[in-house]
Automatic annotation (TrEMBL):
SUPFAM superfamilies: Tautomerase/MIF (SSF55331). This is Tautomerase. Belongs to the 4-oxalocrotonate tautomerase family. Gene3D superfamilies: Macrophage Migration Inhibitory Factor (3.30.429.10). Keywords: Isomerase. GO terms for molecular function: isomerase activity. Residues 2-62 form the 4-oxalocrotonate tautomerase-like domain. The active site is at 2 (proton acceptor).
């Protein structure tokens, strides 16, 4: 019984895109690991950009004023 958790920022992922992710992950597990789609769970969590950080900054801050790539 596979369980896959996908986390994305809450920046406009559509229902259609989420369904495509669910279908794609399920198909991948079926093809590669011979897992039963009926027992494959795919969970998509949408995370506030204030709650997602990278390199000492929240994504909210990074989106407002991106720094030059180093």
């Amino acid at each position: 019984m596979p369980y896959v958790n996908i986390r994305v920022t809450n920046e406009g992922v559509t229902s259609a895109q989420k369904l495509e992710l669910i279908e794609g992950v399920t198909d991948l597990l079926t093809r590669v690991l011979s897992k039963d789609p009926a027992t494959t769970f795919v969970i998509i969590d949408e995370v506030e950009t204030d709650n997602w950080g990278l390199n000492r900054e929240s994504i909210t801050t990074r989106r407002r004023c991106p720094k030059a790539a180093v």
